[in-house]
Structures are given as C-alpha cells and as structure tokens.
C-alpha cells in the first residue's frame, strides 16, 4: 500500500542524515526492498563507503560485498526478481566527478530485477541541470515513481553542506 512507500522513504531519509555534509554533492539515503516480501535487502547513504560514493552506489556495493562479489560480478545473480529501490533523491544520470552514474549502475543490474525506483525528489538544477535518469529508466522498462510529501525535509537534509 502507498503508506509503505512513504515509510521506506522516511527510513531512507534517516540514513541520509548520517551522511557527512559536503558542498559538492547531496546527502541522500537509499533502501533496496524485496517488493514481494517487504524484506530490506540493502541500505546506503552518500559517502557511507570510502571514496566519493553515492547512496544508491553504496546499496549496491554493500550487497556485492555481502555476496563476496568483485566489481566484475553482477548483482542480478543474487537479487530476487521483484526489487524496489527507494532513494530520497532520484538516481544521478551524470556526475561532475566523472564517476559512473547510479542510473547506469541500476541498468547494469537490469529491469528483470529492479522493477521500480521510488524517488522523494527530483535532482535540483545546482550541479547537473537536466537529470535524464527518469527517461533512461523508463526506456529500460523500469517503473519510476515520485512519492510526494517529503520534499522539503529531503532537500533540507540533502543540501545541509551547501553554503547558504
Ligand atoms: N541520487 C544521488 N545520490 C547521491 O548520493 C548523491 N550525492 C547525488 N548527487 C548528485 C549530484 O549531481 C552529484 O553529487 C554531483 O554531480 C557531483 O558529482 P559527485 O557526487 O562528486 O560524483 N545524487
Ligand atoms: Zn548517483
């Protein structure tokens, strides 16, 4: 039910609050859920893992580590076939650092596993002006759903490291 979506996004927002503030990115939280059982498969927040890591990227890398997969492995082999990804901010389609965008990481796992991406806010225009993630995900057959209601709280947390 719809209420669950907001609850998962609130959980993701609580994770985002653990992210060390930086002026050059956003503080984001992400949760991967087995949509058939409501089991939380993985969580992540911006900079949780070493390096300039994104919340969604941390979700994936933690899962790969749990299954002792190197970079070469594909998570699709260990994921159930109805995964929902909740992220407080929509996955990036381009990163100023040049690192692999999270949309590409989602597409690598594939639509057979990640069926829906639920986002709390669209990416603001500050670093990247036209996040093309929604179109890319939908073109790949992945549902993309904006869950309204938490925008102000999400942006407050996301931009905490930015000059006011
Ligand atoms: N969905 C999402 N999750 C994150 O964890 C995060 N930090 C961003 N932020 C998007 C923003 O576009 C990039 O943070 C900048 O483009 C700078 O790129 P880097 O983060 O340094 O690679 N977006
Ligand atoms: Zn990203």
Q: Approximately how much beta-strand content do the residues carry?
A: 15-25%
Biggest sheet layout: 5 strands, mixed
Question: Which ligands does the model contain, each kind named once?
Answer: the ligand Nc1nc(=O)c(N)c(NC[C@H](O)[C@H](O)[C@H](O)COP(=O)(O)O)[nH]1, zinc ion
Shape: globular
Provide the residue-averaged pLDDT: 95
What integer value in Å does the Rg equal? 14 Å
Count of β-strands: 5
Listing every helix as H and every strand as E from the N terminus to the C terminus, the arrangement reads HEEHEHEHEH
Instruction: Report the span from N to C terminus.
Output: 38 Å
Instruction: Work out the helicity level.
Output: 25-40%
Overview of this structure, please?
A five-stranded mixed sheet has the order 2-1-3-4-5, with helices on both faces. It is of the alpha/beta class and 164 residues long. It has five helices and five strands. It is globular and about 45 Å long. The relative contact order is 0.19. The chain has helices spanning 2-16, 55-66, 102-109, 133-139, 151-158; strands spanning 29-34, 39-45, 83-89, 114-121, 143-146. Zinc ion (ZN) binds at residues 54, 56-57, 91-92, 101-102. Residues 54, 56-57, 91-92, 101-102 line the site of zinc ion.
What is the fold's blueprint, element by element?
Blueprint: H1 2-16, E1 29-34, E2 39-45, H2 55-66, E3 83-89, H3 102-109, E4 114-121, H4 133-139, E5 143-146, H5 151-158
Parallel strand pairs: 3-4, 4-5
Antiparallel strand pairs: 1-2, 1-3
Bound molecules: the ligand Nc1nc(=O)c(N)c(NC[C@H](O)[C@H](O)[C@H](O)COP(=O)(O)O)[nH]1 and zinc ion.
